[in-house]
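Notes from hallway chat w/ T.B., transcribed later so I don't forget. T.B. wanted the structure written out for a chain they're using in a teaching module, and asked if we could keep both sequence and structure tokens in one place. Agreed to drop them here.
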Amino acid sequence: MLSSGRFLEFVLLCWLLIIIPGPSVLFTISRGIALGGLGAIKSVFGNSIGLVVQAVLVSIGLGEAIGRSSVAFDIVRLVGASYLVYLGYKTMRSRKLVSGDKLSELRISSSLQIVREGFIVGLTNPKSFVFMAVVLPQFVVRNRGHVPLQLLILGLTFSLLAFISDSAWGIFAGNARNWIAKNPGVLAKMTMSAGVIIISLGIILLFYQPK
């Protein structure tokens, strides 16, 4: 099984990478502004499930295969980028519901839908695919056997740490939204900005190529 020393090194590496604000944090903050703290956590939960699926794929060798196949990687990248653009557009449209005196009429998407949206974003994130396929094997102790299980444990650990960190950002953004909600006009502009950020992340992902 895993070496305790190597596992602690992996946790430290993951934590250092996760706490540095990046695309994942921007996406979570944008969802928090658009959906509130609880909505952001649901989105993060779905995203984490997507990462768990990626971890399973990596543990059985499919993650590396996708990373090595330019066609498969491009498909994942294009699907993920397109879906982010769609979510951003959807968020921008929702700004009309919080403008003027219509805040009370706002209907948040169902929990299942929010989780599903986060899941698709997490599953089609090519950066996490590359990370798991390239970094995880470096922390595996092969002479201890059970390599797929070791890879799965490392992948699940990464997913859990990402969930904890992103949830904290989501709660922060949700609290900010609650404060901003006192002024529906400002909230509408913030929701518009959140949609623009999500679309921008999709465009950036569209041109992402692993080194």
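Follow-up for T.B.: The longest helix spans residues 23-59. Might be a good example for the class.
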